[in-house]
Amino acid sequence: VQLQASGGGLVPPGDSLRLSCALSGVNLDYYAIAWFRQAPGKERDWVSCITSADATYYADSVKGRFTISRDNAKNTVYLQMNSLKSEDTAVYYCNMATYWGQGTEVTVSS
After folding, report:
1. Which of 1, 5, 37, 62 is 20 to 30 A from 88 via CA?
2. Measured distance between the N- and C-terminal CA atoms of the chain, rounded to whole angstroms
3. Contact 70/20 with Cβ under 8 angstroms?
4. Is the dihedral of CA 24, 28, 32, 35 positive or negative?
């Protein structure tokens, strides 16, 4: 099983990014996927998750700004991040059970 996260970058405050988490070696249909993030010098925090039944959940800090979705045909989960703030700066990781992607870095700065 492999998870490949991508889509990070450097953007100014208020801008948007879409992260992708591509899965291989497993059928996404049956699994919940979560996004976590780790800011410099801080612990890794849960951001959002989507269940196999498409139920979605968000941390209070991103609710209303981030949207998680899944495309089972592409075996990929997305995290649409709008109205980005400097405090969203972190390395973002996707997670499935005990498996982690390698992380993609998001920097929000003017």
Report:
1. 1
2. 37
3. no
4. positive
